[in-house]
Write a structure and sequence with these properties.
globular, binds coenzyme A, alpha+beta, about 220 residues, Aminopeptidase, about 40% helix
Length: about 220
């Protein structure tokens, strides 16, 4: 399967909400998404699409609206363009962040349950980190349920460290939130870690494409 990442548009909201309903107990309204997407000064929202064939090139108005991030360019290099429309490729993950003063706050990240475990969450997090650089954020932060060890593993991998809790933060069950922060994302240490993580992710995604190709040849 080929994955590619691009900015979320208002047309994407219904598909995003389907994944959200399978990922979270307190979903956002369509109006909340619209407000976030329109706030381009301090918000960035992304989607990942999957396709059985390499993703299409972006042209004209579509290209202007969907400027690819650095990770988008990596994905485009990994998955060379073909003809067609991106809209025929289903959304399988999404994520977003806000800039609050100097820090980028990851507000949401979710992957379609059928596509978990293949690097999509990691691809999204990389897209959000790129967005944080673009917004000139100094650090990244987020809240995660104390019970959500899967997401915590993803964040730890990208240099987020626990920094306290917010008691009874989640209104559905009164669960505490773990607060996590990265170090300064412009530090040489963080950038070196990120480069290594990206090298490994790139290799993993390439390996998956190669395995899929050989499975198709065999069958
Ligand atoms: C958290 C989530 C986004 C991860 O997406 P994903 O595409 O399955 O994750 P990836 O395949 O990219 O895995 C990246 C890393 O996440 C962690 N991870 C993923 N699945 C895991 C699992 N089942 N157990 C432990 N760690 C896991 C690992 O650190 C993994 O790196 P590794 O493969 O080198 O071990 C996804 O599970 C999800 O949508 N969960 C529901 C919504 C949610 O909890 N969002 C976070 C809210 S704060």
């Amino acid at each position: 399967m080929y994955y590619f990442i691009e900015p979320m548009t208002e047309d994407d909201i219904p598909e995003v909400q389907q994944i959200e309903s399978q990922s979270f107990t307190t979903p956002w309204s369509a109006n909340t998404y619209k407000r976030e997407i329109r706030n381009t000064a301090s918000c960035r929202y992304l989607v990942v699409r999957s396709s059985p064939t390499p993703p299409p090139p972006r042209t004209g108005r579509d290209q202007a609206q969907r400027r690819p991030s650095i990770i988008g360019q990596i994905a485009a290099a990994l998955f060379p363009p073909a003809n067609g429309s991106t809209h025929s490729s289903p959304i399988i993950g999404y994520g977003g962040l806000w800039l609050t003063v100097d820090d980028a706050h990851v507000t949401t990240i979710g992957v379609d349950p059928q596509h978990r475990g293949f690097g999509v969450g990691e691809l999204l997090l990389n897209g959000l980190i790129d967005a944080a650089y673009e917004l000139r954020a100094k650090m990244l932060t987020l809240e995660v349920r104390v019970s959500n060890t899967v997401a915590q593993q993803l964040y730890l991998k990208y240099g987020f460290q626990p920094a306290g809790t917010r008691p009874r933060y989640y209104t559905d069950n009164g669960e505490d939130a773990l607060i996590m922060w990265t170090e300064a994302i412009d530090s040489p240490e963080y950038q070196s870690r990120l480069s290594e993580m990206r090298r490994q992710l790139y290799a993993r995604l390439q390996r998956q494409v190669a395995e899929k190709r050989s499975a198709v040849r065999v069958s």
